[in-house]
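Bug report

Summary: structure tokens for Putative transposase differ between web form and batch submission.
Environment: batch mode, default settings.
Steps: 1) Submit the sequence below via batch. 2) Compare with the web form result.

Sequence submitted:
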Amino acid sequence: MISLKGCHFPKDAVLYAVFFYLRYTVSYRDLEEIMAERGVQVDHATLNRWVVKYSPMIAVNAQSKKRPTLSSWRMDETYVRVRGKWMYLYRAVDKAGNTLDFMLSERRNRPAAASFFAKALSSNGIPEKIVIDKSGANAAGIREVNKILNRFGCTTKIQTVRSKYLNNLIEQDHRFIKRRIRHMCGFKSFRSASATLDGIEVANMIRKQQFPNTTTSGFRLFAEIAG
């Protein structure tokens, strides 16, 4: 459960503001006006602090509450501009298009790929295969993970499949994330970018109905995930 100790606003108001920003194409100043129309006077800078502070916590909860995913993965990375520099958002979905995991990295190399795979395995289990593009770094990352699994006595070996065609699924899935961040003014720090992207990914998971309770509204489900 996420604690809002020290926050001088009702929990529902905070979570509503965070969800609304993550899910819809609004700026912090737009959101400030929207909240004011609902009787909540809050500065746009405070709204930004809420998103950066609570989004990563909600993303952790989302991993433990989402439905089980399939064992055939599609993995790819896309570009995100932070402080005027391109950084890399590693993402993976299963063959049904369900989000598995995500990680922002300053580099696109073997250690970054291995870190992402280790993160994804910890929250989703060991897949039978991972489909990637022609990236040598991603293939090397899977080999490193297989070596680690072997050292721990795991006989399961993750199969690597290189296929641009099969990987179209994850490339198409990037669109929701890219569409949301396109209208932002740009990320000023790695921490802010990583936290905000965590939250946008959760909003995308809700949109894709990856949680057991699909009858409630998007916001109410977001609040349930927050706890």
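Above is the batch result. After comparison, the two runs are identical; trailing whitespace caused the diff. The mean pLDDT is 92. Strands lie at 72-82, 85-94, 99-105, 129-132, 159-162.
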